[in-house]
Amino acid sequence: MRTAIGYVRTDLAGSSRPHCESLIRAAAVDLGYELLGTLVLTATPLTRLRFLASELAVDAVLCPTYAHLEGRVPAELLTLTDVIVIDPLITYCRWDPQLLD
Fold first, then answer.
1. In DSSP terms, which residues pair with 88 in a beta bridge?
2. CA-to-CA separations, 8 to 63, 96, 99, 100, in angstroms, rounded
3. Is the peptide bond before 45 cis (omega within 30 degrees of 0)?
4. What pLDDT digit, counting tens, does each position of 35-85 carry?
5. Cα angle at 74 between 40 and 94, to 5 degrees?
6. pTM of the entire structure?
7. CA proximity to 66, closest of 7, 18, 22, 5
């Protein structure tokens, strides 16, 4: 089974944090991923998310909205894993930057 982790920023989710985590769990099930857990942090650089995605070798990172990724899908994360934004539901597939050279 494919594996995934969730990512929620508490500074953005606020009191909606449980709802954000529920969305991630439901999306993981609907998309056929085993959710290993959800990384819940305050505003922080995405380096911690990249490190965890790399260490766990997950197939995908799921997040509620673009805002949780600082408004963009980081290329550095896409070299490691797929990124799935739940609202709106869009999957960004992992890619190998060497293929673009």
1. none
2. 6, 26, 31, 31
3. no
4. 999 999 887 678 889 999 999 999 999 999 999 988 888 888 999 999 999
5. 100
6. 0.90
7. 7
